[in-house]
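[Automated response] Your request has been received and processed.

Submitted sequence:
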Amino acid sequence: MSNHLKDQSSPYLLQHAENPVDWYPWGEEAFVKAKAENKPVFLSIGYSTCHWCHVMEQESFENLEIAEILNKNFVSIKVDREERPDIDSVYMSVCQALTGNGGWPMSIFMTPDQKPFFAGTYFPPISSRGMAGMHDLLTVIAEQWKSNKEELILSAERILTHVWAEDGSFCEHIDTSLPDAASKLFARNFDKKHGGFGGAPKFPSPHNLLFLMLYAQARGEKNTFFMASHTLEMMRRGGIFDHIGFGFSRYSTDKYFLIPHFEKMLYDNALLIMAYTAAYKISGDAGFLDTAEKTAAYILRDLRDKEGAFYSAQDADSGGEEGRFYTWRYEDVLKLLGKERGERFCKHFGITERGNFEGRNIPNLLNGNALSDSFEGEKELMYSYRKTHYRLHMDDKILTSWNSLTICALSLLYRATGKEDYLKAAKQAQQFVEKSLAYGNTLYVSFRNHIRFVKGFLDEYAYYAAALISLYEATLEEAYLNRAEQICKEAGRQFADEAGGGYFLYGEGNDSLIMKPKETYDGALPSGNSVMAYCLVRLFQILDDQAYERLAKGQLAFLSGEAGAYPAGHCMFLTSLLFYLNPPQKITVVLSEQEEETEIRRKLPLYADVRILLRETKEYKRIDGKTTYYICKDHTCLPPSTRNPFDSEA
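Generated structure:
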């Protein structure tokens, strides 16, 4: 029998529509019911490709006894954190304040007025090894609500008072010392042998690596670049990268980048394309470009909608088993490829009879073998085999923010390679956003089954503005720049805090919650506030508009206060700050009639504002009919030259 989720759009909510738990979506109906029946609310937040969300569903939410306790004593609400980041943000801050950590599935118990009094993440069905089980926890909370409700309500008030306390400190000026401080923090935590920072688990956090690379360029710090490049190489070698079908998993459960949490997210792969592309352009190492292009191939092949937009994620589980899709038995590889070819393949990719993951194998190159190989045919056979034998759940909702990141990534990859297919894909995704996720200047969070859902939050506007700026940088088409300005101005109208600085997560078109957060921490994704800082800085630099400079300086000052306590947790802001402190050089290239634009583009740096002209103008002429370079930096222009100053670079 279906519950109240059966008509929802979210794949995550629909996964729970047949549970015996009488789930409600977030909305007035659920809270009116809780008040009328004097029941506490159980809020469960997750997403459709979350492994531990699946586990908790199977163990607890499909358990008839647990469902009966929930239905009798609680009003139960399910939320997709990707569709409602506002709700997730508010209650994640509560969970972290109460438990010291967070994650998904997130479990919140609260009053009918949405005030939380208990929080956690995953709970097993039965208490064991000192960990509270769902059955016992529900029983205790139900009894406490009946006998001691006033104390639970007071507890909720105390929790909110604590969480509402201001974390950041007001800052009137931009703190230019923060990039140096962040670099030192990363250096202290850098794993010189295995790459990454700290111990397990290790997340890719590509925006951190982008900051380190930009910092290394700005300061001439080879050691800082090594932290980023070595991490990128070890991730490419490890099992976190899918050596058969390409693309990256969400994170590594060990310190080696060998054993991943197998789900693949669009946002991780988009950000990693940017990081590997930047590493290639700085170092000239073709292995980095190969990784960026293979990751793009995965996105374009497996996550792309027929209209050009991109789906959100692929699951970690197949056939009810985590990682089954991605792991191999030694004998199966030999059977598929033949003994001789199979043995060579297994030796190259570290596949053994013993296995490296629960008796099976995750292909990897942590053995030091070459990244470039001659096994393309074998990979195609193995890819086809697993596609026909196993099936992965696809979260097919289309998110504005994550599609915007992908537009940024494909635009950057086009600038690095000159390959028109990347630019075409970026443009098609942007056209989809305009057609299906925008209404005038209003953006929406998600699209599925021909319907758009939930008016956008700060991230939608900030990320989409960044995507439009990226497309402008790749094409110099003024329409993209004009649209970026419109979106930024709308973000200011809806979300800006004129009194305290920065931008709120949600605005006038969104639901009103118990808190109105300003997210500034750059976690798995850069915060909307950090991306807004980047957009404002770039609009100022491109347009030379003093109004944008004032806005950019104000945002950078606000974030300086927020980042002061832990600058390494605010890397997208620090990248924006480095752009502001070190404006990109301006390069205009007038092509000769014989020169190919693609070849020129591949040799130009990414960290530059580039114009490529096919014809001469009054201001920009060819010298002796040859391709001519005009370069300006720090308000000084060099004499025009027919020598490409970037020939020695990638």
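Summary generated for your ticket: The first helix runs from residue 11 to 15. The chain is about 50% helix and 10% strand.
If you did not submit this request, please reply to this message.
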